[in-house]
Predict the 3D structure of the following.
Amino acid sequence: MSSKILIIGACGQIGTELTARLREIHGTENVIASDINTRKLELVNSGPFEIIDAKNFNAIKDCCVNYNVDTVYLMAALLSATGEKYPMEAWDLNMNSLFHVLNLAKTGIIKKVYWPSSIAVFGPTTPRDNTPQHTICEPTTVYGITKQVGERWCEYYYNKYNVDVRSIRYPGIISHKAMPGGGTTDYAVEIYHEAIKNGNYECFLSENTSLPMMFMDDAIKATVDLMEAPADHLTIRSSYNLSAISFTPKEIFESIKRRIPEFEISYNPDFRQAIADSWPSSIDDSVARKDWNWQHSFDLDAMTDVMLNELKKKYTHS
Ligand code: VAH
């Protein structure tokens, strides 16, 4: 019998594409999209949709009971840059939404939870190159603190209450269907749009800032593969390291310039440079590759080809 799935934060960058993929797999009527408002009308009109504030326990519970939901993907969060501007709001949303969903699973109303963590759980004292699954985590951003504490709670609810909660430490994610919101890695999406629209881009990170990154198709595949993996294959119940590629603003610029020779870039680091400098430059995701056969598909140039082709179509038709 197909799962009944609720996606909280379905209008976000990952939620938008996760909703589409899960509807392909499970059937549109079995995947309820939800968000705090109806800002993305094509999603609202594409299948079951509910307005849910992720901070509202009763709203989440009522939706799960009414639709007989067995699996929740909690994708709502304030990301790193926004979290530094609104620390208490980030703590409130990122933590209380997680407690609401974990407690619904603890009571048995739902059976399975997906909750995204991030490489933001690492900090300046973490080994930066090929960062291992188990290492020092002293995050210096509010967002990173919420993800680190959230991982501890996920593992606690698994060990104490046998809640089947699964999680991935996403790197920066690049996509063309929905814009990211308030992240430090957002430059790696903006740069493609500006290359098509204006032929130049002012980057808010310095040219040699290497960060772990991933094309959205790989991130969605990893999320689905983890959730479909046999429970007894999983050795991590905090959150899995995951990566695909690492690159600098200079390297992504050069990948684009090989396809758009007239494209130019300038660098004007802002407050997000300090956030990026606190994160790893590359990630060891060998545990995910061993436990559930994770394997990325897109390298930087393959991602650039798809991004530029899709955005050229988007801006040609708009
Ligand atoms: C951010 N895109 O920049 C998110 C992500 C690893 C970065 O968690 O905050």
The first strand starts at residue 5 and ends at 8. The chain is about 45% helix and 15% strand.
